[in-house]
């Protein structure tokens, strides 16, 4: 199995497709009048929260749209269902592979068991999984990121922006992936301004309880932290993060977004002036690149990691107030250079 660190690589669905996808809770987009397997390309299966989360899933959809536009082939994107099992996820992936889609990408670590099983059944199809590095197979690309590095920079920004010396972190689900966000953020805060207090809270213990898909839970958590004087709140909580941003806007404090550049998300436009920055990871690029690798006849496999050095994690600077704050910009730039050089080792737990 090949292990790589990623650097930038260079019409209407048929009735049978619609039925197959609706059977496993899906929707689809497509762009070819031909139904031959050779015309079918990238398919993605969304994580909890689905399309429209303005964060993780929507970033994956951007990658699909890019592949669809460039390669002019049929694509599919499939929604999750409430309370689904690993078997349901496996059925979804198998259905897409059976129809001839290649690659098939599970968006989120929850697809681990399903990707492993589906990949074994369809060894000639390339599968991808975002945010999981445990699936080892010749036809699987584990698309992972150094989220802790972007989160460290978010911590630097928060420490420079706070006036109350109290900031908050809201994690969607209490799992190792989100621990990376928390660890990097807290380290960035403490390294920048040791006296700043970091309030941390996880919304749920499992994804099934709605930690990544409940804006109301995110809003309540953020309101509690703001009551305790937090004036910058960072959320790594998928769709639930929208509630955190809403609470920050209502209380006139800063929010830090995640995964996508949330300042630019249309659904969050009325809150954007409260979004200081976002700790981004280029899920779109990861999804597009695995599609391109298949198209080029050289399918990615093994662990494919995006980090600060490759430019696939970082901080968004769309908010003009963030961009023109020289104190924040200088501190973030200095920290970024030290992380890339190895002078700063960012914790992942």
Describe the structure.
By secondary structure, the chain is α/β, with parallel strands linked by helices. It is built from 11 helices and 13 strands. The strands form 2 sheets. Strands 1-12-6-5-4-2-3 form a 7-stranded parallel beta sheet, sandwiched between helices. A 6-stranded mixed beta sheet has the order 8-7-9-10-11-13, with helices on both faces. Strand 7 (166-173), helix 6 (176-192) and strand 8 form a beta-alpha-beta unit.
Helix-strand category: alpha/beta
Largest sheet: 7 strands, parallel
Spatial gap, N to C terminus: 27 Å
Fraction in beta strands: 15-25%
| Average pLDDT for all residues | 89
Number of helices: 11
> What general form does the structure show?
globular
Order of helices and strands: EHEHEHEHEEHEHEHEHEEHEEHH
Question: What is the CA-based Rg, rounded?
Answer: 20 Å
**Biggest β-sheet: strands ordered side by side in the sheet:** 1-12-6-5-4-2-3
Q: Helix content range of the residues, please? A: 25-40%
Low-confidence stretches: 1-36
Q: Can you count the beta strands?
A: 13
Describe the SSE topology.
Elements: E1 4-5, H1 15-23, E2 40-45, H2 56-71, E3 74-78, H3 86-98, E4 104-107, H4 112-121, E5 127-130, E6 140-145, H5 147-161, E7 166-173, H6 176-192, E8 197-204, H7 215-227, E9 232-236, H8 241-250, E10 254-259, E11 275-281, H9 283-295, E12 302-306, E13 313-315, H10 320-323, H11 326-341
Parallel strand pairs: 1-12, 2-3, 2-4, 4-5, 5-6, 6-12, 7-8, 7-9, 9-10, 10-11
Antiparallel strand pairs: 11-13
């Amino acid at each position: 199995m090949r292990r790589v660190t990623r650097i930038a690589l260079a019409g209407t669905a048929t009735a049978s497709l619609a039925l197959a996808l609706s059977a496993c809770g899906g929707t689809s987009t497509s762009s070819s009048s031909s139904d031959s397997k050779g015309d079918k390309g990238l398919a993605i299966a969304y994580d909890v929260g689905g399309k429209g989360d303005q964060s993780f899933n929507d970033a994956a959809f951007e990658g699909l749209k890019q592949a669809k536009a460039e390669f002019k082939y049929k694509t599919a994107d499939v929604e999750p269902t409430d309370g689904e099992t690993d078997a349901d996820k496996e059925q979804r992936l198998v259905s897409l592979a059976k129809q001839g889609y290649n690659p098939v990408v599970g968006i989120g670590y929850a697809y681990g068991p399903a990707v492993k099983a589906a990949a074994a059944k369809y060894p000639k199809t390339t599968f991808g999984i975002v945010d999981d590095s445990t699936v080892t197979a010749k036809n699987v690309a584990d698309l992972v990121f150094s989220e802790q590095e972007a989160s460290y920079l978010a911590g630097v920004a928060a420490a420079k922006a706070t006036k109350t010396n109290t900031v908050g972190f809201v994690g969607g689900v209490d799992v190792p992936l989100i621990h990376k966000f928390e660890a990097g953020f807290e380290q960035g805060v403490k390294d920048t301004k040791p006296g700043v207090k970091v309030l941390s809270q996880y919304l749920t213990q499992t994804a099934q309880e709605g930690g990544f898909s409940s804006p109301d839970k995110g809003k309540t958590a953020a309101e509690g932290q703001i009551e305790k004087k937090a004036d910058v709140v960072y959320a790594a909580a998928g769709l639930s993060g929208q509630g955190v941003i809403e609470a920050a806007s209502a209380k006139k404090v800063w929010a830090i977004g995640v995964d996508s550049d949330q300042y630019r998300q249309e659904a969050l436009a009325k809150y954007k002036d409260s979004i200081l920055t976002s700790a981004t990871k280029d899920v779109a690029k990861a999804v597009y690149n695995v599609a391109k690798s298949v198209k080029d006849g050289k399918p990615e496999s093994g662990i494919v990691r995006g980090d600060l050095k490759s430019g696939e994690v970082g901080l968004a600077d769309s908010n003009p107030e963030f961009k023109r704050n020289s104190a924040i910009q200088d501190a973030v730039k200095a920290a970024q250079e030290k992380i890339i050089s190895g002078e700063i080792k960012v914790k992942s737990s």
